[in-house]
Amino acid sequence: MRKVMSILVLFIVLSSCKEEVVKKPERLIEKGVMVDIMYDLSLLEAIKYQNPISMEPYKVNPAEFIYKKYKVDSAQFAQNNVYYASNYVEYKAMSDQIIKRIDKEKAVADSLVMLEKKKQEKVKKAKPAKDSLTVKDSVIGKRKKFLKHNLVKESSMKKEALQ
Asked: Count of CB atoms within 10 A of residue 87's CB?
């Protein structure tokens, strides 16, 4: 009798775990689209956090822009977010996809930054920086050449005038 009772309790516990805690929304957003929305929202939030002034000139709510892009409204997104979050394993997998995507984009951005730094270093090495004395000396040298040239020109003009 105890075995039957323990099997019955185990069956009830396991079947209660299968029951959906949150009902499926009427307008369910596909998992792939939901991942895209969450990715875009996380990027915009990061931009807002890193440089809050960058969003001010546009006077646009970034979340509303994303909702328009994917043709959803905030209520629909919230309902779908709660629905997907109710299944921890599935929501964790979605979050991992977003993190992988961000890491991939970060690697590309980092490599572009490194290339730009290398270009700048090559430019700096190609053109040695002139200190203020060198610049001053070159300006003085140019002035001397100019004056000397003008003096020679004037003296030749005077000689021609005397003849």
From this structure: 14
